[in-house]
Amino acid sequence: MARKAYIEIDPERCKGCGLCVNVCPQKIIKFSKEFNAKGYHPAQQIDPDEKCIGCGFCYMNCPDTCITVYRIPKE
Ligand code: SF4
Ligand code: SF4
Predict the structure, then answer these.
(1) Which residues does a 6 A CB cutoff place in the pocket of ligand 2?
(2) CB 49 within 8 A of CB 2
(3) Which residue's CA is the nearest one to ligand 2's atom 4?
(4) Ligand 2 atom 3: the closest Cα is on which residue?
(5) Residue 7 banded pLDDT, cuts 50, 70, 90
(6) pLDDT for the residue numbered 19
(7) Which residue out of 7, 9, 35, 45 has the highest number of ligand 2 atoms within 8 Å of its CB and is therefore the one to mutate?
(8) What are the DSSP calls for 14-73, one per residue?
(9) Which of 36, 50, 60, 66 is 20 to 30 Å from the Cα of 13, by its Cα?
């Protein structure tokens, strides 16, 4: 199946609150093991099976607008 969407999370602005992790219906956002400059484990998308549906729940729930959602148009 073709990839539908993906997200980018700005790791330096993320404060590791976990709202995006909890709200993602596909459970494809996890905390990084790395620390950012503020000392938080930033969220990152781990989506090897291309399950992101571009619903935007992560984007809508992020209090710091760290997330950008990219929807890939059908060919
Ligand atoms: S757009 Fe939807 S499916 Fe994709 S990472 Fe965000 S919450 Fe999950
Ligand atoms: S909701 Fe935003 S600030 Fe919170 S963990 Fe996700 S990307 Fe980071």
Answers:
(1) 9, 14-20, 43, 61-62, 64, 66-67
(2) no
(3) 17
(4) 14
(5) very high
(6) 98
(7) 9
(8) -----HHHHH-TT--EEE-SS--TTS---EEE--TT-------HHHHH-TT--EEEEEPP
(9) 50
- The pLDDT of 39-47, averaged and rounded, is 98
Atom from ligand 1 closest to the CA of residue 29: 5
Atom of ligand 1 nearest to the CA of 55: 2
Q: What is the pLDDT of residue 2?
A: 86
| List of domains in the chain | 5-71 (3.30.70.20)
**Per-residue pLDDT at 37 exceeds 80:** yes
Mean pLDDT (the chain) is 97
